[in-house]
Amino acid sequence: MTDKNAPKKTGKKPTPKPAAKKATPSRTAARKTAPKSTPKGKPAPARKSAPAKKAAPKKPDTAKAAQSAAQSVTDMVGEAKRAVGRPAKYSDDFIPQMIAYFNIETERIEEVAVKGKDGLPVTDKEGNVLMEKVVVKNKFPTLERFAARIGVTRETLHDWATAVHRDDGPLKGSLIRPEFSYTYARAKDLQAALLQEGGLDGLYESRIVQFALKNLSGWKDQTEQTVVADITTTDATALDDIYEEGIRNSAEAKQQVLKRKLAGIIPGQAGATGQAVHDADDEE
After folding, report:
1. Around Cβ 141, how many Cβ atoms within 10 Å?
2. What is the pTM of this model?
3. Is 86 part of a structural domain of the chain?
4. Containing domain of residue 157, as a range?
5. Which of 109, 126, 149, 168 has most Cβ atoms within 10 angstroms of its Cβ?
């Protein structure tokens, strides 16, 4: 008997079956693994990464921290000292510097570039900048500004100028720096001269000039002198009145004495006494 399911024999050889192709993921599987699409115009959300493990905190080194803090404080103090600076020591070089600083005029002449309407310098055909001479007001010199230039204060200048020898000896009570003291006085005189000249020329504000001259040179207002003159005149008038009243009292006293004398010489004769009194008045 023959098997019905057996393949029929043919004269041709059986062809080998092709190798099986690798399986490709199905569309449904691809849809499951592919990220969900985001709407247009919005960026895709970033994937969350697994949180990193936190390292165990290290124990702070207290000794090292204290040392670092101390060093920071030292640096800050050093910077502050460098910013302020130490006060300058006295030097005889300050004498010519002070004279040069205060011995100036109220104005000076400077050569500056000519500027056009646009504010830019004007040049000639060859490209050279045109220059002109103008009068510039000098800044009023002050003791405070000079002290700041040499690194001290105004009080220091005053102390240098007024310091005296205190030790027992032939120099006790004399100035330690007489040349600087003289220069300090000259600086104040030069200030007063500038104030007078600038005030008369209208370069300085009049109220500031008056205030400065009162403090620097001891100036006084005219009204104070007028008050003193009025007081002196009043005192003289009062003295004249007292003198005239004394003269009148003296004349009356003389008449009374004369009347008493005459009354004693011719008693009981009123007429004669009265006539003698009239004669005495005429003599007076």
Report:
1. 18
2. 0.46
3. no
4. 94-104+141-219
5. 149
**Residues 6 or more apart in contact with residue 90 via CB below 8 angstroms:** 160, 177, 180
Nearest to 47 by CA among 61, 36, 62, 60: 36
Amino acid residing at 25: P
**Based on the structure, what is the number of domains in the chain?**
2
**∠ CA 233-236-242, rounded to 5°:** 145
**pLDDT tens-place string over residues 38-65:** 555 555 555 655 555 555 555 556 666 6
Residues with Cβ < 8 Å from 67, sequence gap 6 or more?
Answer: none
CA–CA distance, 267 with 255 (Å, rounded to integer): 18
Contact of 114 with 122, CB cutoff 8 Å: yes
pLDDT at 272 > cutoff 50? no
* Residue closest to 90 by CA, chosen among 158, 145, 186, 144: 158
Pair 99, 215 in one domain: yes
Answer whether residue 279 is part of any domain. Answer: yes
Mean pLDDT is highest, among 84-98, 133-147, 255-269, for: 133-147
Q: Are residues 149 and 247 in the same domain?
A: no
Does 271 share its domain with 180? no
Residue 199 covered by a domain: yes
